[in-house]
């Protein structure tokens, strides 16, 4: 699984349903000895750890891979690295890389490759856990209003979520600094100021400022960003009674969101992380079943 675009709506719904079943106590164990490895060439806490836990819960043998001391540092290409892992007998890999669409180089790899995030492009497993979190709350997607606020241009989460949510019948609005919003994003949503959307959205999805993907320094301070685009205590009070706050994390506390709101009643930020394990179990199980592996 590389992108949301490649997934049919039926398949998205199937993965979310399976993830919800895992969250409600369903278990599954793979039959036989199956190896997997998580190849992360860009930093991660949540995605890598939750894939690791999901794999162990499904009974997979997790083969450690540390990019910082791998032969990539001797100039080995991504393709040769993955081909090597495949040749050694690993049956599935999860990959994160800084490069957009790194997976285009991997067409000759036979084992399933799950995208753990590619540059500013796609983050399909984050999308699945976000959909699952929204569904747990509202029991539907159709007709929901979702505001995605922040560094939209550099966010693979915004790309994947906006596409999936629109296809599932939600209305998507974007906000944040206009220089971080481009024509491409407009295709999947409408631009509003934070104060225009705050009263109306069912889901407020905040995004981290992706400093590592910016060419130049931010033209405003963190406090200025918070005042203009962040979730302040005043803005939180203006939200609808049932509306929820989401953030894929890591969080810049006091910038995208007031630190006291990170764990407030309507925040689902740590629920998202919990759901990450279940969503990834569903993704892994589906990928392996498609290859003929059986679970009991
Ligand atoms: N949300 C997310 O992808 O977090 P990590 O970068 O820690 O994996």
TrEMBL record:
Question: Which intervals hold domain Aspartate/ornithine carbamoyltransferase carbamoyl-P binding?
Answer: 2-136
Entry binding sites for L-aspartate: 74, 156, 208
Q: Which residues does the UniProt record annotate as the domain Aspartate/ornithine carbamoyltransferase Asp/Orn-binding? A: 142-285
Q: Which UniProt keywords apply?
A: Pyrimidine biosynthesis, Transferase
Residues annotated as binding carbamoyl phosphate are 46-47, 96, 123, 126, 249-250
The reaction(s) annotated as catalysed by this protein in its Swiss-Prot or TrEMBL entry are: carbamoyl phosphate + L-aspartate = N-carbamoyl-L-aspartate + phosphate + H(+)
Q: In which pathway does it act?
A: Pyrimidine metabolism; UMP biosynthesis via de novo pathway; (S)-dihydroorotate from bicarbonate: step 2/3
SUPFAM superfamilies, sorted: Aspartate/ornithine carbamoyltransferase
Q: A GO molecular-function term, please? A: aspartate carbamoyltransferase activity
Write down the superkingdom of origin: Bacteria
- Is Cell cycle included in the keywords of this UniProt record? no
Class of this enzyme: transferase
EC number(s) for this protein?
2.1.3.2
Q: Which GO terms describe its biological process?
A: 'de novo' pyrimidine nucleobase biosynthetic process; 'de novo' UMP biosynthetic process; amino acid metabolic process
Q: Please tell me one Gene Ontology term that the record gives under cellular component.
A: cytosol
Question: What does the similarity note say?
Answer: Belongs to the aspartate/ornithine carbamoyltransferase superfamily. ATCase family.
Q: How does it assemble?
A: Heterododecamer (2C3:3R2) of six catalytic PyrB chains organized as two trimers (C3), and six regulatory PyrI chains organized as three dimers (R2).
Matching NCBIfam families: asp_carb_tr, PRK00856.1
Functional description taken from the UniProt entry: Catalyzes the condensation of carbamoyl phosphate and aspartate to form carbamoyl aspartate and inorganic phosphate, the committed step in the de novo pyrimidine nucleotide biosynthesis pathway.
Q: Per its record, how is this protein called by name?
A: Aspartate carbamoyltransferase
Q: Which organism is it from?
A: Chryseobacterium cheonjiense
Q: Which gene encodes it?
A: pyrB
């Amino acid at each position: 699984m590389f992108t949301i675009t490649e997934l049919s709506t039926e398949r998205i719904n199937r993965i979310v349903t399976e993830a919800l079943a895992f969250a409600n106590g369903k278990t599954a164990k793979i039959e036989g000895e199956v190896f997997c490895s998580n190849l992360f060439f860009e930093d991660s806490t949540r995605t890598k750890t939750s894939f690791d836990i999901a794999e162990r819960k499904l009974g997979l043998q997790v083969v450690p891979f540390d990019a910082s001391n791998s032969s990539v540092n001797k100039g080995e290409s991504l393709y040769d690295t993955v081909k090597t892992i495949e040749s050694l007998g690993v049956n599935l890999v999860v990959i994160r890389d800084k490069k957009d669409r790194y997976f285009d180089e991997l067409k000759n790899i036979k084992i399933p490759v799950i995208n753990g995030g590619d540059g500013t492009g796609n983050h399909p497993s984050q999308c699945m856990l976000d959909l699952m979190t929204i569904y747990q709350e509202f029991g539907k997607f159709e007709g929901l209003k979702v505001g995605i606020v922040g560094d939209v241009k550099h966010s693979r989460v915004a790309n994947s979520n906006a596409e999936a949510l629109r296809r599932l019948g939600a209305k998507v609005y974007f906000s944040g600094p206009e220089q971080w919003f481009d024509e491409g994003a407009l295709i999947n949503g409408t631009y509003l100021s934070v104060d225009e959307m705050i009263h109306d959205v069912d889901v407020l999805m905040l995004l981290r400022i992706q400093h590592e993907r910016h060419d130049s320094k931010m033209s405003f301070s963190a406090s200025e960003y918070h005042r203009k685009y962040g979730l302040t205590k005043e803005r939180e009070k203006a939200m609808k009674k049932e509306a929820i706050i989401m953030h894929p994390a890591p969080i810049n506390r006091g910038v995208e969101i007031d630190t006291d709101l990170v764990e407030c009643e309507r925040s689902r930020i740590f629920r998202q992380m919990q759901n990450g394990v279940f969503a990834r179990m569903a993704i892994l199980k589906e990928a392996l079943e498609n290859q003929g592996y059986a679970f009991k």
